[in-house]
Write a structure and sequence with these properties.
Radius of gyration: 14 Å
CATH class: Alpha Beta
CATH topology: Bifunctional nuclease domain
Strand content: 35-45%
Number of strands: 7
Oligomer: single chain
Largest sheet: 4 strands, mixed
């Protein structure tokens, strides 16, 4: 999937991002916090902060420790909460790191090109 839309509201606590299926028609909304939404929005608009913010720090740590971030996966939905995994390859081993989807997607847009974003068919089925 790919990031297709970011809705930032100054009057609501919850912001919304929409993922759209690449070469498909399905969309997937996720409610996220203001910090994550602004982090995603800044990167999409090409704004780079003078000093590293949280998602820049995470990217830098992975890179400096010799990891190669492959993709992010929204892997499950449990009791109205989405779960995601950041998948990093290091020394030939695939490491999956538990994450909130908002942080995983924010990290994905910090790479050029953006990291692939996958959503489990089970999750898409529950949302549809």
């Amino acid at each position: 999937m790919e990031l297709s839309r970011i809705i930032i509201s100054e009057i609501n606590d919850q912001q919304v991002i929409y993922l759209r299926e690449v070469d498909g028609e399905r969309t997937f909304p996720i409610l996220i916090g203001l910090f994550e939404a602004t982090s995603i929005d800044r990167r999409v608009r090409g704004e780079v902060p003078l000093r590293p913010l949280t998602h820049d720090l995470l990217k830098n740590v992975i890179d400096e420790m010799g990891g190669e971030t492959q993709d992010v996966v929204v892997s499950s939905l449990q009791e109205h909460t989405y779960y995601a995994r950041i998948r990093v390859r290091r020394d030939g081993e695939l490491i999956e790191i538990d994450s909130r989807p908002s942080d995983a997607i924010a990290l994905s847009v910090h790479y050029d090109p953006h990291l692939p974003i996958y959503v489990s068919e089970d999750v898409l089925g529950e949302v549809a």
